[in-house]
Amino acid sequence: MSSKLSLAQIITDCIQSSEQKRITFAEYMDLVLYHREYGYYSSHSCQIGFEGSDFFTSPSLSEDFGELLAEQFLQMWENLDRPRPFQLVEMGAGKGVLAAQILTYLKSHHPDFFEIIEYIIVEKSPQLRGEQQQRLEIFSIQWLDLQELHPGSIIGCFFSNELVDAFPVHQFILQNGKLQEIYVTFRTAPPNLKTQHSSQSLDIEILEFIEVIGEPSTPKLEEYLQLVGIDLTPNVYPEDYRSEINLAALDWLSIVANCLQRGYVLTIDYGYPATRYYHPRRSQGTLQCYYQHRYHDNPYIKVGEQDITTHVDFTALENWGKKCGLNPVGWTQQGLFLMALGLGDRIAALSYQQQSVSQLLKRREALHQLISPEGLGNFGVLVQSKGLTNTQSQLPLQGFITPVVF
């Protein structure tokens, strides 16, 4: 039996064993992406970067992304009066490319800082953890689960790049002015739609996952909307308006804030403030599925073989962070953030580098993609802090100094 069929059967079994023969979309998304054996991020289905087939990230475009982040971490260390060690906790490290860029650059350009760094990777996927360990074997790195970090044990920076967008989300819909939740159940195909599957050509019924509507599974959905200041009144929002609520992001941030004794939390992802995220005209939410560098909005096909993501509600992270003791430092776009850290100077310096024309053009294109307002440059960058003295909290971070437009 193929992994696709195995995962579909596992999800079906979960549905059958539930009291109402349905599961929340968040439970479905968690199984599809994170099942330890067959989930997208746990299997060889996950392909990241240009050598992959599904999507690419900023680190896979250019080493400059990691190098400029390294410069920001250096300033954070200096702002904190150079603690020893300075702990960098990367959450969701992909194939380890970003970690390699950061550590290689610091070893070469800031060896005093490199020597006192304690680099920790929090990675849920066994497959990706294995790839990270191979790529990063020359560095001293710890791999831990988030639950293995002790309260108040981190002095440094928690950071992530395109992590929160892949957390399982609850989906809701407005019907008759009431907040309702979208659940997942299944049905089998009619007999005339049965077909041949697997290399053994066994007759297998086609399982079709379908949505059903019901009362919210938890009052936390309403509480979330109150947290971000969204009132889904029927005279503003249309009938059947649907979107997502990322409760997992709040749980994650609670743990991070509890583990951070002193330092920063840096979150890079695509998303919006709540007023844009839940705009009445965005009536179908932000959920997208990625397969072979193409995207669509059907999460019920290619089960375990495609990525499923939603945009990040940065208002929720900021407001919940305050409740967890995190102070907002700044929020900006990735393009502005990288330009403030010196990306414009790197673009200008290309003209003086001894490379072939094709190499220069390729590198210039990669750098421009990092700041393009039509793509990666429009990502959000949120920094929060905890435990800083009054003097330290007043020290600006270079990435949030408005740059001169290049």
Question: Would you kindly provide a written description of the structure presented here, covering whatever features stand out?
Answer:
The protein is α/β, with parallel strands linked by helices and 406 residues long. It has two domains: 7-189 and 202-334, Rossmann fold (3-Layer(aba) Sandwich); 335-382. 35% of the residues lie in helices and 24% in strands. The protein has 15 helices and 19 strands. The longest helix has 16 residues, at 64-79. It is globular. The chain starts with a helix and ends in a 13-residue tail after the last helix. The model is unreliable at 193-204 (pLDDT under 50).
What is the domain tally? 2
Termini separation (Å)? 55 Å
> Strand content of the residues, in percent?
15-25%
- Say how many strands there are: 19
Low-confidence stretches: 193-204
Q: In percent, how helical is the residue content?
A: 25-40%
| Gross CATH architecture of the largest domain | 3-Layer(aba) Sandwich
Structural class: alpha/beta
Rounded average pLDDT: 89
